[in-house]
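Model it.
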Amino acid sequence: MKKSLLGALVLGATLTVCACNDKENKPSPAVENAKTSAAEAKEAVVDAAKDAKNAAAEKMNAAAEKMNAAGEKAAEVKDKVVDAAKDAKDAAAEKMNAAGEKAAEVKDKVVDAAKDAKDAAAEKMHAAGEKAAEVKDKVVDAAKDAKDAAAEKMHAAGEKAAEMKDSAVEKATEIKDAATK
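Modeled.
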């Protein structure tokens, strides 16, 4: 395109110089043809430039549409990852609640067992009169053992709940990290 424009300009300049040297100052048919050819070449160059500009604009529009589609797809993927992380978090919370309820049930059973042991000891102390001191010591020991056992069970249940919580937090962090990558 540049070469044809340059050629047209050189041809036009040459013909103009030749025409200026003409003594009669009449434009010769060759000069007229050269002027016409130069004008046509100029129009052809302008049309080609417009066509190239339009083609470039179409390619830019197509690229912009592809970018928009890719952005929408990325947003969809992000939403799916966020939903999956939320579901995992909710499931972990449900497991933690269930573990807490189980620990409360165990505690209630231990308390009931200790109460039952205390009531039984009180009955024996009342009925036994002379052996009250021995029975009292035995009941205190049994209650202490039951308390220790209950404390151990509660401690174990608490550790298990803490482990489940840590595992759930770790899992949620992994999902979050995976979602951000």
